[in-house]
Design brief:
The complex is a heterodimer of chains A (about 110) and B (about 110).
Chain A lengths: L3 E4 L2 E4 L5 E7 L5 E7 L6 E8 L2 E4 L6 E3 L9 E3 L8 E8 L7 E3 L3 E5 L1
Parallel strand pairs in A: 2-11
Antiparallel strand pairs in A: 1-3, 3-8, 4-5, 4-9, 5-6, 7-8, 9-10, 9-11
Chain B lengths: L2 E5 L2 E5 L4 E8 L3 E9 L6 E6 L5 E4 L2 E5 L3 E6 L8 E11 L2 E6 L3 E6 L1
Parallel strand pairs in B: 2-11
Antiparallel strand pairs in B: 1-3, 3-8, 4-5, 4-9, 6-7, 7-8, 9-10, 9-11
The chains are: A mainly beta (about 110), B mainly beta (about 110).
C-alpha cells in the first residue's frame, strides 16, 4: 500500500539531547513537509522540500534541521536549541506544489523531560 | 498577517442533525483552501480543495463551499463516525513565498 510512514509513534528524550524523527513515503511525491501541532494551535510549518537536495524554512524553523537526500525520505532533527520541543510532529507529502492535496503520516509524539 | 479562524471551536450534534462549520480567512494572494479531517492521535486526512469563490465540492454527507472571505463545511444528517476535528487551511503565495496557514479546528461530536 502506498503511504507515508512516520516513526516512532512515541518518543521520549532527555532535555539537551538531539533527536531525529523519521518520515518515509512511497507515493513518488516530490514535495514533503514537517508540521508541529500543539493543543489549541493550528498546524505550523517547520520545513518543506519541493525537490531532492533542496528545502526551505517554514514559520518555526529555529531549533530544527532537515535533509532531503532521497525523494522518499525527509528526516527531521529536533536539536537542543529548540526551546519547547514537546509536541505532536506531522510529516506530509504532496505530488505537486503546496496548493495540492497533502497526505499526512500518523505523527510522532515527542516528549522531552 | 494572514489569519484563519474556525468556528465554533466545538460542536455537539444529535445523529441526523445537520449543521455547518465555518472557516473565515484574512489573507492576500489566496491560491487554495483545504479541508481536512483529523481523528484523535492521528494525522489529518484530506477532504476537499477549493480554489475560487463560488466553488462547491461534495463527498458523502459533507459539502464544502467557498466565498471571498470564508468557507463552510456543511454536514447533512451526520452519523457518529463523522465525529472528528475538522481543519481548514489556506494556501497563499506572496512575492514568491508560499505559505499554508491552518486554523485551530472545530471538534465535532455526533451523539447517537
Amino acid at each position: 500500500d502506498g503511504g507515508i510512514t512516520q516513526s516512532p509513534k512515541y518518543l521520549f528524550r532527555k532535555e539537551g539531547q538531539n533527536v531525529t524523527l523519521s518520515c518515509e513515503q512511497n507515493l513518488n511525491h516530490d514535495a514533503m513537509y514537517w508540521y508541529r501541532q500543539d493543543p489549541g494551535q493550528g498546524l505550523r510549518l517547520i520545513y518543506y522540500s519541493q525537490i531532492v537536495n533542496d528545502f526551505q524554512k517554514g514559520d518555526i524553523a529555529e531549533g530544527y534541521s532537515v535533509s532531503r537526500e532521497k525523494k522518499e525520505s525527509f528526516p527531521l532533527t529536533v536539536t537542543s536549541a529548540q526551546k519547547n520541543p514537546t509536541a505532536f510532529y506531522l510529516c506530509a507529502s504532496s505530488i505537486g506544489p503546496m496548493n495540492t492535496e497533502a497526505f499526512f503520516g500518523q505523527g510522532t509524539r515527542l516528549t522531552v523531560v | 498577517e494572514d489569519q484563519v479562524t474556525q468556528s465554533p471551536e466545538a460542536l455537539r450534534l444529535q445523529e441526523g442533525e445537520s449543521s455547518s462549520l465555518n472557516c473565515s480567512y484574512t489573507v492576500s494572494g489566496l491560491r487554495g483552501l483545504f479541508w481536512y479531517r483529523q481523528d484523535p492521535g492521528k494525522g489529518p486526512e484530506f477532504l476537499f480543495t477549493l480554489y475560487s469563490a463560488g466553488e462547491e465540492k461534495e463527498k458523502e454527507r459533507l459539502k464544502a463551499t467557498l466565498t471571498k472571505k470564508e468557507s463552510f463545511l456543511h454536514i447533512t444528517a451526520p452519523k457518529p463516525e463523522d465525529s472528528a476535528t475538522y481543519l481548514c487551511a489556506v494556501h497563499v503565495r506572496n512575492f514568491g513565498n508560499e505559505k499554508l496557514t491552518f486554523g485551530t479546528g472545530t471538534r465535532l461530536t455526533i451523539i447517537p
